[in-house]
Amino acid sequence: MKRYIVLLLLAVNAIVLIALQMKSLGWILLGTTTILLLFTEKHFRRDMLLVVGALGILGLTEINTDISLLHILQMGTPLLLAIILPFIITRYMFKENTIRFPFHHGRKWYRKEIMYIFITAAIAYLILPFYLRNTGAYLNWTVEPGADNLFMLFLGTNGLGTWDEFFFVSTVLAILRKHFSFWMANAAQAVLFTSFLFELGFIGWAPFAIYPFALAQGYIFRKTDSLLYVITIHLTLDLILYLALINAHHPGWLQIFIT
């Protein structure tokens, strides 16, 4: 029972601390989770503390869409630590291969897998421009003229999309799967995934679309064991996001959307 309470607290904590930015309550919940872990089995405790620690890092990080070089460094450094530290600890202290980053399929991509990428692009093409204008979410991003600004925006959107898969799918989901059924672990990582993107700027009704996407990414990674494939799916969506942001801020530049 304690394990399931811990999992529930982690999910709630992601919503409170990351998505809603209720820092005081979030830290109280994170502390409560840590105390509860002291009364659990050793291997479960040490693994879950890695997730708690990663959540703590995210809670201390200023998460937004500022694409200035200074902010990229300020935000990117702790985000990288949230991936690197659990990997180093599990690999070299625990002597386990819990966290892996397999950039392979072990085979050619099936036709249906390639089609799924195109389907993702088509759905994103129809939904993202409408969503950004309907909710005003595009205002959370700055799109300034100039090749250097557009390049930094492209770098930022794709860099965060890549990080999402390294952290939520390859790190958090891998740790949770050791102690819970895949479906419970995947449901929990999708809450963390959605909470992060909500704080990043995907406000309004975006979580109702992001959560199923996060679930699908976890499932696809389980089936293919290919981080490259899930990143390709995510970056396909991010390319549409990038173009939709430009269109929302400067409608005369890219008249390519119908929604």
Number of strands: 0
Radius of gyration: 19 Å
Structural class call reads mainly alpha
Largest sheet: number of strands, sense, barrel closure: none
> What percent of the residues sit in helical stretches (DSSP H or I)?
over 70%
Distance between the termini: 47 Å
Shape: globular
Average pLDDT confidence is 94
Order of helices and strands: HHHHHHHHH
Count of helix runs: 9
Contiguous runs where pLDDT drops below 50 for at least 5 residues: none
Strand content bin: under 5%
Explain how this protein is built.
Helices cover 75% and strands 0% of the residues. It has nine helices and no strands. It has helices at 2-19, 23-37, 42-60, 69-93, 111-135, 147-177, 182-200, 207-224, 227-249.
Keywords:
259 residues, mainly alpha, 9 helices, globular
Structure described in brief:
75% of the residues lie in helices and 0% in strands.
What are the SSEs and their pairings?
Elements: H1 2-19, H2 23-37, H3 42-60, H4 69-93, H5 111-135, H6 147-177, H7 182-200, H8 207-224, H9 227-249
Helix pairs in contact: 1-2, 1-3, 1-7, 2-3, 3-4, 4-6, 5-9, 6-7, 6-8, 6-9, 7-8, 8-9
